[in-house]
Amino acid sequence: MRVLGIDPGSEALGWGVVDGSGSKYALVDFGTVKSNTKQPFSKRLLNIYDGVAEVMATHSPDVLSVEDTFYAVNVGVALKLGQVRGLMLLLAEQRGLGIAEYAPRLIKQTVVGYGNAEKQQVGQMVKILLGLKEVPKPHDAADALAIAICHFHHAGVQERINQAAKKK
Fold first, then answer.
1. Which of 6, 24, 51, 94 is the right S-S partner for 66, CB 3.0 to 4.6 Å?
2. How many CB atoms lie within 10 A of CB 114?
3. Catalytic: which of 19, 54, 67, 93?
4. What long-range pairs does 154-163 form, CB within 8 A, spacing at least 24?
5. Does the active-site annotation cover 62?
6. Residue 19 vs residues 61, 82, 115: alpha-carbon distances, Å
7. pLDDT digits (tens, 9 = 90+) for 42-51
8. Which domains, from first to last, does the chain contain?
9. Which of 19, 140, 143, 159 is catalytic?
10. Over 80: is that where the pLDDT of 157 sits?
11. Is 68 a catalytic residue?
C-alpha cells in the first residue's frame, strides 16, 4: 500500500509518501507545496490543487491520509484550512483513492505516544520510524509523513479486525 499523507496549509502544504504494509513501511518522498500569500486565495487554491495533483501523478498513492478538521482560534484560518482539506478530498475522490482522516491528537498519540507532542517530537519520531539520517524539513513535510505513518498503524488494526470477522 502506498499512502500520501497531507498536512493541509494555505501557505505551505506538507506532503509525504510512504510505502509498505502493516507496521513495515519506508519513505518514498516528501515535500511541500508553497503558495504566494500575495495572490488571491482562489489562485493559491489552484496552485495547491495542481501541486498535489502532480505529486499524485508522480507517486501513484493508493490512499490519501489527511489531518481531520480541527478547531482554530482564528476562524478565518480554520475556514481556509477547511477549503484546502476539501480540495484534497476532491483530488482523492477524482482519482479513486481510499481516504483516511485522523485527528491531530490521534496522529501525535500514534506516532509519538503523546497526544500533545510538540512539532520537534513528531519530527524526531518520524526520523526514527522511517530510519532517516535527519528530521524531514520543513516541519509541514514531517507532519505529513506522520499522518501517513498514522494510517499504516490504524489501517493494520482495521485489516486484522476485518480478517477476524471473516473467520467467524
1. 6
2. 13
3. 67
4. 154/100, 154/102, 154/110, 155/1, 155/63, 155/100, 156/21, 156/22, 156/23, 159/22
5. no
6. 9, 27, 24
7. 999 999 999 9
8. 2-167 (3.30.420.10)
9. 140
10. no
11. no
What does R_g of the chain's alpha carbons equal in angstroms? 16
Residue 50 falls in the annotated catalytic set: no
Between CA 120 and CA 110 the distance in angstroms is 15
pLDDT at residue 94 greater than cutoff 80: yes
Task: Please tell me the distance from the alpha carbon of residue 158 to that of residue 94, in angstroms, as a whole number.
Answer: 24
Which pLDDT value is given to residue 168?
Answer: 66
pLDDT tens-digit readout, 51-91: 999 999 999 999 999 998 766 677 888 888 899 999 999 99
Q: Which of the two residues, 106 and 168, has the higher pLDDT score?
A: 106
Q: Is residue 144 a contact partner of residue 16, using CB atoms and an 8 Å limit? A: yes
